[in-house]
């Protein structure tokens, strides 16, 4: 297994992982597939990923197993939240692992990498949002000392989803 920071020339890999892992995790919630495809184009296109990777406050990582890209993560440095009141806060925006590789504890390794970067940056706290029905992810974060700090909704097309916000003191 290899974990490395992503660069702009990795935009295609990040885009494909983002689409595939989001579809594996949430695709079943969309009766109207076109809404999901439109979301992928707006959110996970190669151009969008390239722009996001280039932003100064964003950091992306990729994970390869036997040379195959199987996971990615995104950390947003200096990302204030209405749920967290620390002065210097970062957001763990994404940790997604292809379904067939979930048992390899890749998410935990990525989380450690992101948390270390946030600490190195000087963040006092980190926060994230997780879909309220994603019990696997919620349990993962609870086991890793995150606590629930709020709730909000997220809209994708005509679909509305309930999320909980979680945070951890660094």
Write up this protein.
Helix 1 (11-26) packs across helix 3 (46-54). The chain starts with a strand and ends with a strand. The chain has a single domain (2-169), classed as 3-Layer(aba) Sandwich (Aminopeptidase). The radius of gyration is 15 Å and the shape is globular. With 170 residues, it is of the alpha+beta class. The longest helix has 16 residues, at 11-26. The protein has helices at residues 11-26, 33-44, 46-54, 106-121, 135-143, and strands at residues 2-5, 58-65, 68-76, 89-97, 125-131, 147-156, 159-169. It has five helices and seven strands. A seven-stranded mixed beta sheet has the order 1-2-3-4-5-7-6, sandwiched between helices. Strand 6 (147-156) and strand 7 (159-169) form a beta hairpin.
Mean pLDDT: 96
The CATH superfamily bears the name: Gcn5-related N-acetyltransferase (GNAT)
* Secondary-structure element string: EHHHEEEHEHEE
How far the N terminus sits from the C terminus, by CA atoms, comes to 26 Å
Outline the low-pLDDT stretches. none
Strand content: 25-35%
From the spread of the alpha carbons, the general shape counts as: globular
Helix content: 25-40%
Major pleated sheet: 7 strands, mixed
Give me the CATH architecture, please.
Answer: 3-Layer(aba) Sandwich
| CATH class category name | Alpha Beta
| Biggest sheet: strand arrangement | 1-2-3-4-5-7-6
- Pairing-aware structural class of the strands and helices? alpha+beta
Number of domains: 1
Number of helical regions: 5
């Amino acid at each position: 297994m290899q974990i490395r920071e992503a660069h702009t020339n990795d935009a295609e890999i990040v885009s494909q992982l983002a689409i595939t892992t989001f579809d594996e995790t949430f695709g079943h919630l969309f009766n109207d597939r076109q809404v999901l495809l439109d979301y992928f184009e707006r959110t996970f296109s190669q151009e969008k990923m390239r722009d996001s990777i280039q932003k100064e406050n964003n950091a992306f990582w990729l994970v390869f197993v036997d040379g195959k890209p199987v996971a990615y993560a995104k950390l947003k440095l200096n990302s204030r939240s209405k749920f967290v009141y620390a002065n210097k806060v970062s957001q763990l925006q994404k940790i997604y692992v292809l379904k067939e590789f979930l048992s390899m504890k890749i998410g935990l390794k990525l989380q450690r990498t992101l948390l270390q970067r946030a600490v190195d940056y000087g963040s006092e706290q980190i926060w994230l949002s997780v879909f309220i029905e994603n019990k696997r992810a919620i349990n993962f974060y609870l086991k890793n000392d995150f606590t629930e700090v709020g709730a909000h909704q997220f809209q994708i097309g005509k679909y509305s989803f309930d999320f909980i916000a979680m945070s951890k003191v660094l």
